[in-house]
Write a structure and sequence with these properties.
11 strands, about 0% helix, seven-stranded mixed beta sheet, four-stranded antiparallel beta sheet
Length: about 120
């Protein structure tokens, strides 16, 4: 299983950005029952941002509720994180994650994509 992320870059505060993640490889559908986005800022631990199951059960961390949305296309094996009203504190490396269980980080990670919110 390989996760390929796209999106990221520099955006001004208040702006929007879209991150996409495509799953590649051979696997059972349950292998990626849960897909999520994590982020890690310099000097901080990696933290969950949002997650979504195949059945479209969604979890959003309080810090991003009302600003970020997560969606998933099971047929295209993609998950998208739409980020609006971005703040400087959203600056981090964002990682796509996949695994079999909702609420738990799975074993598969993308290489990460940098999001920088700055004027």
């Amino acid at each position: 299983v390989q996760l390929v992320e796209s999106g990221g870059g520099l955006v001004e505060p208040g702006g929007s950005m879209r991150l996409s993640c495509v799953v590649q490889g051979s696997f059972f559908s349950t292998t990626i029952d849960n897909m999520a986005w994590y982020r890690q800022a310099p000097g901080k631990q990696r933290e969950l941002v949002a997650s979504i199951t195949r059945e479209k059960n969604i979890h959003l961390e309080d810090s991003v509720k009302g600003r970020f949305t997560i969606s998933r296309d099971n047929a295209k094996l993609t998950v998208v994180l739409q980020m609006n009203s971005l703040k400087p504190e959203d600056t981090a490396a964002y990682y796509c994650n996949a695994g079999p269980q909702f609420g738990t980080a799975g074993p598969y990670w993308g290489p990460g994509t940098q999001v920088t919110v700055s004027s």
